[in-house]
Amino acid sequence: MGDAKGKGREKKKAKTGNEWPVIKPKRDLLVNRLKGNDLITVPNFFTSSESKAFIQAAESLGFVHQGSLGPAHGEAYRDNDRISVNDQLLADAVWESGLNKLFSDIKIRGKVAVGLNPNIRFYRYNVGQRFGRHIDESVDLGDGKHTVYTLLIYLSGSPQSRGKSDVKGSGDSEILVGGETVFYGPRNSLVAEVAPAEGMALIHIHGDKCMLHEARNVTKGVKYVFRSDVIFA
C-alpha cells in the first residue's frame, strides 16, 4: 500500500463525476469475531469524517427507492433507498486500507480473498424503512472469482469512541434509533444483534453458508450503509 498509489486516488472521481473521500490506511484495527470467521465486526473502520463525506457524496448522486413484492410473492420484504456504482479504484482503496490484512489468514475451500467487488452500493433507510429476513447470494464474477462475504460499513449510527469533546454539539438529527442488523441460526435462534455505529464494518459470510438476517425498522434518524462483497479466487 504505497504512498504513490494513495496519492493517485486523492483526486480520483467515479464515472458518475462524483468525487469520493480520501480513505486513510487503518492500523491496529479491533476485530470482534461474533461467530468465528462467519460474522465479524470492526469498529472505527471508517473515521467519522470519512463516513460523513461518503454520505454527502451519495446524497449528491441521488438515491432511488427499492422495494419488493414481499413474502407473499416469494420475496423478502424490502423498503429502502439505493445507489449502485461500478468503481474499481474505490473498491481497491477500501480493500487496501486494511481489509486485505484482516483477510490475509482466511482461506475458503483453498481459495483466498483478492479484493472487493467493484459494484459498490449505498443504502439509505429513513424512518419506517427496513429489510426483512433474507440471505445474500454469492456472485460468480468469472475467471474463478466469486464473492464469499458481504461487507457493510455503517455510515451513520451511534458515535464512535472519540472522546467527549468530539461529540459535543451533536444534534438530534444525527441520532439513529433502530436499524439493527440481526442474524438467526437454526429454528430462528438469535445469533447476533448488531446496532449501527458510525464507521463500523460488519462482515458476514454469504452464499450457501449465509445466515438468515434482517435490517430492523428505523424509528429515528437516517441509516446509511456502504455495501460491497469480498471476492475469493
TrEMBL record:
Which cofactors does this protein require?
A: L-ascorbate
Could you give a GO molecular-function term held by this entry? procollagen-proline 4-dioxygenase activity
Enumerate the catalysed reactions: L-prolyl-[collagen] + 2-oxoglutarate + O2 = trans-4-hydroxy-L-prolyl-[collagen] + succinate + CO2
Q: Cellular component GO terms, alphabetically?
A: endoplasmic reticulum membrane
Question: What does the UniProt entry say about where the protein is found?
Answer: Endoplasmic reticulum membrane
Protein name stated in the entry: Fe2OG dioxygenase domain-containing protein
What does the record say about its membrane topology?
Answer: Single-pass type II membrane protein
Gene3D superfamilies given in the database record: q2cbj1_9rhob like domain
Q: Domain Fe2OG dioxygenase spans what residues?
A: 115-233
